[in-house]
């Protein structure tokens, strides 16, 4: 079953065509990585799925057949959550307060957290391993801690589908893998559907069940990494001359750029 189906989606920014008749599907209880060169439309696709951007044509439907454009914004926020590339942290907010913002779609007309809301906030912080940071100011956290706090906010929203737009940007290597382990765990242990934009192709292959490859404002290919991550794809989509081998640790495809011939340098006299 597919969590999200996209058919003939076209998006423009003023006169600029960003997505051109995009059709693809995101499987339920899978981690899907969106990959493609810079500016190809990956982030725009996420924002359109989340309802932040309105498409000029085409449709997005959920597993039950509902068109996202026909769902009330608050109801859609109970089904799809998104962590943008560069979220802005409100001044003076603690970690617990930030995570509680994820409960906004569920609040009563007074804007008060119920006991159920508080339980979701506590559970989300535990899943993101930041319970001990609850009373810390978000602005005082390290990059990795801050990103986990934002992830916890998304988890508190308790949606069936989670969209992550380049969540590993600005994180060091260990924190990148730590965050992707959390994303993988959300699928394996909690039955979530996760769609993530990644620039590191080897990480995408290691963690994703499915790749959706965006190229020239449309879908180049989609499928399992072993099926679609090929040397031809790397050449055509990324202009990258690379070998595809098996990662010795994860047994997933891995790109190894071929050595480029060095231009001889003149001998200084």
From TrEMBL:
It comes from the Bacteria. Residues 4-241 form the ABC transporter domain. Signal peptide: none annotated. InterPro entries: AAA+_ATPase, ABC_transporter-like_ATP-bd, ABC_transporter-like_CS, P-loop_NTPase, Siderophore_ABC-ATPase. It is found in: Cell membrane. The keyword Nucleotide-binding applies. SMART domains: AAA. It is a peripheral membrane protein. Keywords: ATP-binding, Cell membrane, Ion transport, Iron, Iron transport, Membrane, Nucleotide-binding, Transport. This is Iron ABC transporter.
């Amino acid at each position: 079953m597919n969590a999200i189906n996209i058919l003939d989606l076209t998006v423009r920014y003023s006169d600029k065509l960003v997505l051109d008749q995009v059709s693809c599907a995101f499987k339920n209880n899978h981690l899907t990585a969106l990959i493609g060169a810079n500016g190809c439309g990956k982030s725009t696709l996420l924002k359109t799925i989340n309802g932040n951007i309105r498409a000029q044509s085409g449709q997005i439907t959920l597993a039950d057949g509902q068109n996202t454009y026909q769902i009330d914004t608050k109801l859609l926020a109970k089904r799809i959550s998104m962590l943008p590339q560069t979220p802005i942290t409100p001044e003076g907010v603690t970690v617990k307060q930030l995570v509680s913002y994820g409960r906004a779609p569920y609040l009563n007309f007074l804007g008060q957290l119920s006991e159920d809301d508080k339980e979701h906030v506590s559970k989300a912080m535990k899943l993101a391993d930041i319970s001990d940071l609850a009373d810390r100011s978000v602005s005082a956290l390290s990059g990795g801690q801050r990103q986990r706090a934002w992830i916890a906010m998304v988890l508190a929203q308790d949606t069936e589908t989670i969209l992550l737009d380049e969540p590993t940007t600005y994180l060091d290597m260990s924190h990148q893998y730590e965050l992707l382990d959390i994303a993988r765990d959300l699928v394996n242990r909690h039955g979530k559907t996760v769609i993530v934009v990644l620039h590191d192709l080897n990480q995408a292959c290691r963690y994703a069940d499915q790749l959706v490859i965006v190229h020239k404002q449309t879908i180049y290919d989609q499928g399992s990494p072993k099926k679609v991550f090929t040397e031809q794809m790397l050449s055509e989509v990324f202009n990258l001359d690379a070998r595809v081998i098996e990662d010795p640790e994860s047994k997933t495809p891995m790109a190894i750029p071929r050595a480029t011939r060095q231009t001889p340098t003149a001998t200084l006299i």
